[in-house]
Input
Amino acid sequence: MEENKITEINGIQLYYSFVAGAQRIFENQKLLNKINVFPVADADTGTNLASTMRSIVNTAQPQENLKLTAVALADAALVGARGNSGIIFAQFLYGFSNEIKDEQTLTVSAFAEYMKNAVRYAYEAIANPVEGTMISVIKDWAEYIYQLKDKIDDFLKILLDGLMKAMESLKLTTGRLAVLAKSNVVDAGAKGFVVFLEGMFEYFKNGQKPLMFDTSTIEIAEAEDNISHEDITFRFCTEAMVVGTNLNKDSFSKALASFGDSMVIAGSPSKLRIHIHTDEPWRLFEEVSKLGTITYKKVDDMVMQNDLAANRKYDIGLVTDSTCDIPVDLLQKYQIQVVPLTVHFGEEFFLDRITMQPEQFFRKLQSSPVYPSTAQPAYSEFINRYNYLATHYKSIISAHISSGMSGTWQNSANAARKASEESGKKITVIDTKRITSSLGLIVLRAAEMIDSGAGHNEVVEGIEKWSQNTRILVTSRTMKYMVKSGRVSYSKGLLGKLLGIKPIVEVKSHGKTEVFGKPFSEKSSMKLVMQEMTRFIGNNKVWGYAISHADNQEAADWYSQQLEQITGKKPVFVQQASPVLVTNTGPGVVAVSVMLE
Output
């Protein structure tokens, strides 16, 4: 038996033991999501830890050098970390990697000592550590193996004994927190740490066989009905990655303390990951940007997440992007998921309608020396969203801004294919060839159809038909912003300025814009739009109409009154336009959309 002892490990063994732990997280997502009741019952602990582990598997590379491997594992975890549990785990790994000396192999004694020292890093990352959670189990495990470090010189033995201690500590979490006792569950993050340890132990027990797998083979389990929870204190789970030099955690902690709760700040002086629950993510990011450069943002609506987990209305999930301009009350009514585009002012970037509201955008537009640009959501954002939704829905339909104007549809489609392979769920992504209020009408009609009990394919066919039955005309006060955004050439813009043209732009059925009219006043521009919409409607029955505007309520109200007289219907919605639209067209723009039956 003695010859089977593992007294030292190198960087490659450390890496593959972590990959084995990650695999156990992937296998237990469903359970971890189900028992997630603290700090908020948003049924995503499993998904968040899986995202963290997926980053480790995809990004970190095994090396003989122990220090380099540990640093790579910690950095990958920090980059992919999501949620309270993911960021705490990432900070624990950072502490472990920071403590490791530049040595080729790791003894059992050194492993135990570094892990014990890493606990301090994890505690320092949490603003208000709560005992009876993941951090308690990590501490109990690390302190226990430290006590054994001079008695045991076999990795397999110390990992087994440590695992038993971690399981014992995990059981105690139920009685240490009232919310866990009420639901009779253990802490989800703590359970995640224990299953990770199980994977590490199994790697060494099974002969240290490298676990090689493509993340496309990872199955995302469907979450079951969630356990109810007390009132959510702050609505948005907000995260950021900040880079800089000499970043100070205390400075960030002091700046953000008043914004909410569940604050965790993990990372190094050059790269920090921030997690906090707040009601004002847009204001919070303004403060963070004063302390470093934000390279990543995430804002999750925990009220919406909990609603999905505890009160999901449909079997079909509906996704769109922030250019749809649908009011919040309608999004909540139909549980529509919105993936935001981003607005960039130089190096600063904002999540459309989440960390950049229309009113805030207008102020920024006037004061910024840099004209903004826009960008589609990243592939990773769609992957995370689809993986989460796949745990709740039987299938998903996603309808987006025209591919002729944005790469949003392409990123969404690519991510959907990947998420569908992983989850086995049907995900259909549609290029609506529309934007703003016309996209909003299409999505809301799809929502109504889902609400009435229609099937997946029926809704998809409907969306493709409604896109052809929808007309959108956009009026603008000036061509200046279209020139700045590159939508109109400089020469045409100069001519338009000289002539005082108030352009009307139409989004055609092929999904690209064309100039429809060139009136010389805003009033004549509005009349021309109504003439064309009256002609378009003719004797046809109108399903609905909607109006988006950029700080031009007067014009929006006039259009609404005119269309109500023609159709006999109130507008489906009148809404401030997405900052993404205003970036490309300028303040004062009005988008009028009509959908026929």
Q: What stands out?
A: Residues 155-176 form the longest helix (22 residues). The longest strand covers residues 260-268. Residues 220-230, 489-501 have pLDDT under 50 and may be disordered. The radius of gyration is 27 Å.
